[in-house]
Amino acid sequence: MLRSELIDIMHEENPHLTRRDVERVVSVFLESITQTLERGARVELRGFGAFSVRHRKARSGRNPRTGKSVDVPEKHVPFFRTGKELRHRIDAST
After folding, report:
1. Residues 6 or more apart from 34 whose CB is under 8 A from it?
2. pLDDT tens digits, one per residue of 57-94
3. How do the domains of the chain map onto residue ranges?
């Protein structure tokens, strides 16, 4: 699903809101999650899942094209763990 598709669905389900209002709600929601993760905090949406930031240590990697060894710097990466309810719904639909 694309961001625009999400906005379309939310607009259809909430006809009392203008499309611009729905776009703003989606933008504020996603920006709030992003800012929380930037601070290193965790975002938990009960039944859906939890977003967190994980630290990856520096390591030695390999360039697949040349085979040469490359140093990969340490970094922080976003991580998402699904909630129990979401896992069960996805499992039941397959």
Report:
1. none
2. 999 999 999 999 999 999 999 999 999 999 999 999 87
3. 1-41, 46-94
Please, which residues have CB within 8 angstroms of residue 50's CB and are 6 or more apart in sequence?
A: 42, 43, 44, 80, 81, 83
Once rounded to an integer, what is the mean pLDDT over residues 1-27? 96
pLDDT tens-place string over residues 33-51: 999 999 999 999 999 999 9
Class of domain 46-94: few secondary structures
Residue 12 three-state SS: helix
- Identify the bridge partners of residue 52 per DSSP, sorted by sequence position: 79
- pLDDT tens-place string over residues 65-74: 999 999 999 9
Query: What token pair was written down for 71?
Result: 């140093």
Task: List residues bridging with 77 in a β-sheet.
Answer: 54
